[in-house]
Amino acid sequence: MQIRQEVFDDRAGIYAVTHAAFSKDDHLVEPSEVGLVQQLFECDGYSPAFSLVATNGNTVIAHVIATWGTVDGKHKLLGLGPLTVAPEYQGKGAGTALMQAISDRAESEHVSGIVLLGATGYYQRFGYEPAVSRGIIPSDPVWGDHFMVRVFDERSLPTGHYRYAAPFGC
Prior knowledge:
- The longest helix has 15 residues, at about 95-110.
- A hairpin with a 2-residue loop joins strand 2 and strand 3 (about 60-70).
- It is globular, with a radius of gyration of 15 Å.
- The protein is an alpha+beta fold and about 170 residues long.
- Helix 1 runs antiparallel to helix 2 (about 30-40).
- The protein has helices spanning about 10-20, 30-40, 95-110, 120-125, and strands at about 1-5, 50-55, 60-70, 75-85, 115, 130, 135, 145-150, 160-165.
């Protein structure tokens, strides 16, 4: 398995992995996450530096993306999601490798932190904690502790109300 920044030619593989990972019972219905990823690639918050793939040979087996959102409409902060792993590779380290790689990339780029909305039991092992405890308020208070942050630089971490990149709609 190799981890690298995605390139345009990876997009079909990314969409296929996203479709497979988020399909429920009906594989003929395209999951909303596929459209979300397509929109994230086109939005103002997209940065290729924060879109990474895991590959097995030439095949994309997993993808993670973080796009720029804002705190109080003026301070930029990355919002992660979705993290996608092909079903046959789930539980084999691809998701863990991508989470570590995107954290390493963010830290090397001097990003103050990354927020995400996800399962606390999964993401806490990567250093994520409830964002509210750091003064970052989700756009939907119902998210509670599932809205988390990984802090890289406490001094420059903004506080206030977070808004994801436009395609998220929140």
